[in-house]
């Protein structure tokens, strides 16, 4: 190899190295390139090994060229390395971009059962009633016995009631709060009691757990007229002023007389038909039942030590899911318990 050839080879390293740099996208790529060109056994060293063999005339120029080329390659290497390191830092800090739109936190909403419970309790609170709560695991005495439901009453059947032991049940209604309240307070008494109740029942329109609100007013001279006035005004606040209300004779062991309260059907407006077809909600009757009520039976007063000669009172009980279904036009009871946020978010 003569001097010229060696110098040409040396100078050829610069464009070759530049080309390699263009393909080096990481510090690892760059290091591999450095070893290939500038390493102890790299391409530069290889050419330099031929230096002693060329003529002493050409050797000084070749030597200088070799140094220049080495300096060029080193500069190019350093420049690329700095750029790659900068890019790496930038991408690390790019995970925080203060101009990105924020992620809106999910907004919760109250369950329709909670909403209806709060609305109803709010109405009675406005009338001066206290809100009371009690245990869901209840003594037979409060759930049945003191409410004039004797041991052979069909309501006690294992078919309906979830028994914990022979004398302890999951309460089948919120009526035990009548008993608990009257045992704890002297008249006058005005309470509403919201809460969960349990029955061995599960199909399209029944769930083993649902919610009730019990109401009780006891004083001297409480009449059936008070019951009618209070419940009519309550029902109109919940369902609107135009709704028709009727009281239908019924039976409950703990009230005498007893009445169920119907309202004109919210679906068909009391007409019994929707678009010429039978109304599904009221089954063409034009009425839907929304609560049970009555004048407190003297037997209940005796059980709690109130004088039935001195005091009278009325009581009522309603199913919260049922009211919510009618109020919001919900067709399927199971919706309340599936906890689908697309459903729950609508209220
Ligand atoms: N406890 C009854 C039930 O679960 C509802 C009820 C009816 C409550 C009449 C009352 C009442 O206080 O007077 O079906």
Encode the helix/strand succession as letters: HHHHHEEHEHEEHEEEEEHEHHH
Mean pLDDT: 92
General form: rod-shaped
By DSSP (H or I, 4+ residues per run), the number of helices equals 12
Low-confidence stretches: none
What is the CATH homology-level superfamily of the largest domain? Answer: Bira Bifunctional Protein, Domain 2
Strand arrangement, largest sheet? 1-4-5-11-10-7-6
Structural class: alpha+beta
Structure explained in plain terms:
The chain has 347 residues and is α+β, with helices and mostly antiparallel strands. It has 2 domains: 92 residues; 233 residues, Bira Bifunctional Protein, Domain 2 (BirA Bifunctional Protein, domain 2), CATH 3.30.930. Helix content is 41%, strand content 20%. The protein is built from 12 helices and 11 strands. It has a 7-stranded mixed sheet, sandwiched between helices. A hairpin with a 2-residue loop joins strand 6 and strand 7. Helix 2 runs antiparallel to helix 4. The longest helix is centred in the N-terminal third of the chain and has 35 residues. It is rod-shaped, with a radius of gyration of 44 Å. It starts with a helix and ends with a helix. The model has no long low-confidence stretch (mean pLDDT 92). The structure holds 3,4-dihydroxyphenylalanine.
């Amino acid at each position: 190899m003569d001097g010229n050839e060696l110098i040409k080879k040396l100078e050829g390293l610069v464009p070759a190295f530049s080309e390699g740099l263009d393909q080096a996208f990481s510090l690892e790529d760059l290091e591999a390139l450095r070893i290939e060109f500038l390493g102890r056994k790299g391409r530069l060293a290889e050419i330099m090994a031929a230096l002693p063999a060329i003529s002493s005339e050409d050797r000084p120029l070749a030597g200088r060229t070799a140094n220049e080329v080495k300096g060029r390659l080193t500069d190019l290497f350093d420049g690329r390395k700095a750029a790659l390191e900068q890019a790496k830092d930038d991408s690390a800090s790019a995970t925080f971009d203060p101009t990105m739109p924020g992620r809106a936190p999910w907004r919760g909403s109250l369950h329709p059962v909670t909403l209806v419970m709060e609305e109803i309790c709010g109405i009675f609170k406005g009338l001066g009633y206290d809100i009371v709560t009690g245990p869901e695991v209840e003594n037979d005495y409060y759930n049945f016995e003191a409410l004039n439901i004797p041991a052979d009453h069909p309501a006690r059947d294992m078919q309906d009631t979830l028994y914990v032991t022979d004398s302890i049940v999951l309460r089948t209604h919120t009526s035990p709060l009548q008993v608990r309240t009257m045992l704890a307070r002297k008249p006058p008494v005005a309470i509403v009691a919201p809460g969960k109740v349990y029955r061995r029942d599960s199909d399209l329109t029944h769930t083993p757990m649902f919610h009730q609100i019990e109401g009780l007013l006891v004083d001297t001279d409480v009449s059936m007229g008070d019951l009618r006035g209070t419940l009519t005004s309550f029902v109109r606040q919940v369902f609107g002023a135009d709704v028709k209300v009727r009281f239908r004779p019924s039976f409950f062991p703990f009230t005498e007389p007893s009445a169920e309260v119907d309202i004109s059907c919210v679906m068909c407006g009391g007409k019994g038909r929707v678009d010429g077809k039978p109304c599904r909600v009221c089954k063409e009757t034009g009425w839907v039942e929304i609560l049970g009520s009555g004048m407190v039976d003297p037997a209940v007063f005796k059980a709690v030590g109130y004088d039935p000669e001195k005091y009278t009172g009325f009581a009522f009980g309603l199913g919260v899911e049922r009211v919510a279904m009618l109020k919001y036009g919900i067709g399927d009871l199971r919706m309340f318990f599936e906890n689908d946020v697309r459903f729950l978010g609508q209220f």
